Amino acid sequence: MRRLWPYIAIILDSFHAALSSRILWVAFIAIWILLGALAPIGYREDFTTTFRDRDIDNGGRLKAMLAAGIADPSKANTPVGKIANGLPEDVKRELRQVGQGEDVRFYFTTLADSLNSLFEDESWYDAELWKSTARLRELRELDELGPDEIDETLRKRRARLRIEAAIPGVFESRSARSIMLTYLGIDFPARFAVDKTQFLILLNQIVVPTIINWLLGFILVFLGILVTASIIPDMLQPGSLHLLLSKPVSRWLLLLSKFVGGCAFVFLCVIQLIIGLYLIAGLRLDVWNARLLLCIPVSVFVFAVFYSVSTLAGLRFRSPILAIGITCMFGAYLVVVGMIGGFFDGFVTRPSTINQMTIAGDEVFATTRGEGLLRWDAKTEQWDEIYESEALGRNRVLAPVAIDDSTIVTAVVRGGRFNPFGLGGFDLLVLDESNQWRAQPSLRLPTATLQLVSADNGVFAINSSGIAVTSKQQIRETVGDSSHNPKTDDDSVAAAASASGMSSAAPQNSWLQKLASMMGAATEGFQDILPSDVLLTPPRSVGISASGDTMVLFSGRQLSRLQPTTDSTTTQLASSAAWQVVATHTIDAPLPRFAFLSLSRDSVLLASNDDSLQIFDRDTLTPTASVPLPDRLSVVSSIAIGDDSRFAVLTSDQRCRVLTRDPDSEKWILADPLPQSNIEAIATDKRSSTLMIAHDIDQVDLLDADTLTLHRTLRPQLSTWRQIDRFLIGPLRSITPQTSELGGTIAAIVSGESSLEMNRDEFGPVELVRYKILEPVLSCTLFIAVLLTTSCVYFSRRDF
Fold this sequence. Notes:
Layout: H1 5-19, H2 22-38, E1 41-47, H3 59-71, H4 79-85, H5 89-99, H6 108-116, H7 127-130, H8 137-143, H9 152-166, E2 177-183, E3 186-187, H10 196-228, H11 231-235, H12 238-245, H13 251-262, H14 264-285, H15 295-317, H16 320-352, E4 354-360, E5 363-368, E6 373-377, E7 382-387, E8 396-397, E9 401-404, E10 407-410, E11 412-413, E12 427-432, E13 439-444, E14 449-455, E15 458-463, E16 467-470, H17 472-478, H18 490-499, H19 510-518, E17 527-528, E18 540-544, E19 551-555, E20 558-563, H20 570-574, E21 580-586, E22 595-599, E23 603-608, E24 612-617, E25 623-628, E26 635-641, E27 646-651, E28 656-661, E29 668-670, E30 679-685, E31 690-695, E32 699-704, E33 710-714, H21 720-735, H22 742-751, E34 755-760, E35 766-770, H23 774-797
Antiparallel strand pairs: 1-2, 2-3, 4-5, 5-6, 6-7, 8-11, 9-10, 10-12, 12-13, 14-15, 15-16, 16-17, 18-19, 19-20, 20-21, 22-23, 23-24, 24-25, 26-27, 27-28, 28-29, 30-31, 31-32, 32-33, 34-35
């Protein structure tokens, strides 16, 4: 122990030197001011009342329904007509223009503000008319309250629910209570449209890590280098160094002691900031997150990366100025490498990443994150681009589905990458082997179609508010027919109007057709199949059996099973009336952020952001099992595989696990991951009993769905830019300390999650930003070890 005292004294001396630094006290004061400014922040929960632009999920349908309520005389005495006629005059004037067929664009904020204006005067409400609407239990309970039992907030909440009931299928599902931030007890002007659980996710995964990354990962590191850059050069002064070496100390331990002592500056600042944020989050926001304290050693570790450069530069040049300059150049190098890596991630890797797959006979097709459509060319062993992947493209390509062994169907939505409605109507595209896989237009798809599903009895088109079906024969008959007119005739207009809730007694003119189309009604050749009281509201997911005679919907928190009203032939089924609900189940859990439904022979799997997989009986929808996920993992997508009750589940660690039921115990078991890693997407083809696994950007493995044995691999050659990324940029990023990636480590520590949901594709796999937790820690540790070893060897052998 006595041998350690000299080194401990050196470290303590560094603490004393840090405390005597004026820059340290300036940093202290800045931290105290920041914490003092954050301390008055608080929150309160209040009922979700006013509409915001982000509450509108289907703006086209909302505009069309309001326009129909004004333009169609028969709708005047309906709930939607009452609401439409109660809007401000300027909005009604523009809605009349919509009803007359003019293309009038509304900002979502305009629509939201006009609906909020109805809260002040509820003369538009008629209790008798609203009895025909699908009202939530919350609304029924509020309607039963007397005038003396309801305050102003509850009255506005009730008004919002009445509007949502009258205009179904257009609003995002929101929690009944929202978070309201306060400052010094005064409400912020903006209300968060999130509940307490979502608020905690936002705080722990975005807000707190961002504060720590900027304050600790940038500002304090820079200040720390300014303060500590002189420690090593000062130690090398003849009088100082001779005095230190006169004691029984080792040179390399002396240097390491100075290095540890140099970290004192950042440690003293970090410990105040982190503990201050921890107390503010706990006392003011009720978030007692002890994991936040783990950011103290991580933040000092980040500084140690830069200080190791400063130490070596100080030894070599004995100049604080040069040490600061070299360290700043090193930081600039890290920024440049990070920018180059981000460029390749965003413009080379991500656009080429496969996210959907399908099989037609022996042909394999895939769509990419860059909205490209690929076909595997077995002769050249390369992906043939039918539609090119683009990093900044505006169009959206629907995941293709096969209608036979030589034909697939898809669609290109112009301007649909960030807007499901696109820039107008779009056709179902047929790609056939006999036509060298060139796209041929077929039927006009319903507006805002998001997913196509192929079944034995037809092709289903799922949009943001409904589901329509057509026969495969009808698709083939319209291919290449130049005389095919996507506009409907009078009979189909009346059918579309009826399916959309519009009166068929209204004048049969173009505006009726246009409004019906805007509402997402079935176009010519398609038939709406959802009952009028069944709506698709976020989060939504649809599962359809391979035969096409069973459909399970998840909408909001409602699970429903539907079947056709008649047992008929394929052609008759495609044109039959709406299906009927035969079973329902309400999920007793908070509203999930996303959901995936998968149907097997006798079970239904519901996978969401919950920490477990929920399994239901396919016929009755009664819960049968709940299987927990491995710690810190979330679901990316899920599918049913094989002929028995098995499911493949893709998790956020980019591994695929099979969920199966033990035939002896009847228990559901989540097996160990399959051998593939870095998995981007999974899919299945029931006709060929094939499980498709896309991994490592654009490689695909085809497995037998029953035995899970590999029978085919697709390994394309790398493009020029991919080769540069793999053989130059990849190694460069590997040997560079990944300090920027330590932000993901901090986010993972604070939130307890392994990934962050970013872009969720409707009816598709969730795109997650996966935190790199160990990689940056190992790369930075190796870098610090190499530079400190070099510094110790140089200091030990050099005669100063």
